[in-house]
Design brief:
The structure is a homodimer of 119-residue chains.
Chain A: H1 27-38, H2 43-54, E1 60-61, H3 66-69, H4 73-85, E2 89-94, E3 97-102, H5 104-113
The structure holds a DNA duplex (30 and 30 nucleotides).
Chain lengths: 119, 119
DNA sequence: GCTCGGCATCGATGGATGTCAATGCCTGAC
DNA sequence: GTCAGGCATTGACATCCATCGATGCCGAGC
């Protein structure tokens, strides 16, 4: 339904940690989950994610991400790197430009971690 | 199904911000959402939330929260304060002790913010 | 009154993080 | 080869944040 451009290849996303509300979190699981939520704990990164997730092309050129968030190019590049390291986005070089796309499955994992306990 | 003890009163929880994957986030919404996710971006706070959410009594005495997370009493108190300020937990004094309970609706709000865009 | 126990607050410290200017590295065009 | 543009990296700086010891406050019991 989209994509004149091929979408970026989606990586496998590993689940993580029992849902917070279902079982007591182990210390290791808590560290890992916190690391992932930390990627969402910045306004610039949330705006970037939102821009990527809502673009009808399914991906956005890095050159089109700087102006909307109102930060310098190095700062945007820095946040994109963090998002990439958190597995929330993927990137791909296309000629001179770099295109970014969200990894929906990675957001789903975080969503599941907040799911209510069964019954 | 629970509660010999009365559960803590649940406050109203205000929704916040269009879902990240549905519409482009405004700058203000992004700041507010980031503030809420920041409350989840720490292992100790996630463990505390998990302890509260999974306790069959629906609430836990602060005195029973220090040992499980392996941090000092002031540190635990500090994190509980942040969780309270983020609206993720509520507290109530019962005699000498203070009891804490999660606010499930507040976690649901964060979950909804990560919901996939409607088809 | 005094004392003890539970929790919050304060103050200090070390480490993580957001930001930007300057710079480096590629790639494509000429 | 040279040049220009796009993005990443570096270095520096300021700010925030997690942590803990010490201390304060308050309620219950004596």
């Amino acid at each position: 339904m989209v994509a004149e451009l091929p979408l970026l290849a989606q990586p496998e996303v590993e689940a993580c940690c029992a849902p917070v509300r279902t079982a007591a979190l182990s210390s290791d699981d808590a560290v890992e989950l916190a690391r992932r939520f930390a990627a969402l704990a910045d306004p610039v990164r949330l705006q970037l994610l939102s821009l990527l997730a809502t673009d009808p092309r399914g991906a956005v050129c890095a050159c089109d991400l700087v102006e909307p968030v109102g930060k310098s190019q190095p700062t945007v590049s820095h946040h994109l790197k963090l998002l990439r390291e958190a597995g929330l986005v993927v990137s791909e070089k296309r000629g001179v430009n770099v295109w970014y796309a969200v990894v929906p499955a990675a957001l789903d994992v975080l969503r599941d971690a907040l799911a209510p306990a069964p019954s």
